[in-house]
Amino acid sequence: MKLGLFTSGYQRNPLEHCFIDAKRFGYDYIELWGARPHAFAPDLKSGDINEVKRLIEKYEMPVRGYTPEHNAYPYNFMIGSESQREDAVNYLKLNLDMAKKMGADFMLVSPANSGYLATYDEIWSRMTRTLRELTDHAEKVGVKLVVEALTPYESNTFKSANDFVELFKRINSPYIVGMCDLVPPFVQHESIMAYFDKLGEKMYHLHIIDGEQGTDSHIMPGEGALPLQELICELKEIDYRGTATIELVTAYINEPRMYARRAVNNVREMMQKAGY
């Protein structure tokens, strides 16, 4: 199992710190958060992509995943007018182009809140149409589109393994795949390992993090209520060898370097105990 450093928590630090720390702490790759000040796609297109590529080469640290910010202002493809949806789609297509230029294997999207008046039919119609457009573009550029389920605190749109089953019935392409952030199933009393059973070969990526019931907080691995050690033992049992980004976000923004070190050390210790 390959461990990735997520850069969202470093947004008050220079981007180079992410690459320095991924290298010195023993991460295998970076999952790059696509927003200012570091890696906003329009900025990358204007020339900043060259800095990302320089850092990749200098530190011999690949960007395996690119995760653009698109769940709130100003981009959310699940709410607003058709012109707003189209604007979000065009933005995410540009993100796919930039993911390709930096050599990323995948780009991550997570369908956000659709608003309180949206019906199931409206939600699924809009989401399917949007993700099919993005999948078509992903096929053209050769970057996988990884879809993430969110917690009910974040979204009323896409929240469970069963939602993935339905999505993959509607969109059939090797370029759209699924993943599991550990917090959404945990806070909904859903089985994490059921994602592997239900998604099968479509289960492509993980966000490893700890959590607590009643909140979508992402907590330092080993310091929350998730049975994380036992989960990693189960991942070893099924021989999961994919990517797993340790998704520390803004709760640790004051000292991202110290917490990034602690997080990977905690997970590596659990992996060692599990026999990885």
UniProtKB/TrEMBL annotation:
Residues 21-258 form the Xylose isomerase-like TIM barrel domain. It comes from Hydrogenoanaerobacterium saccharovorans. Pfam families: AP_endonuc_2. NCBIfam families: PRK09856.1. This is Protein FrlC.
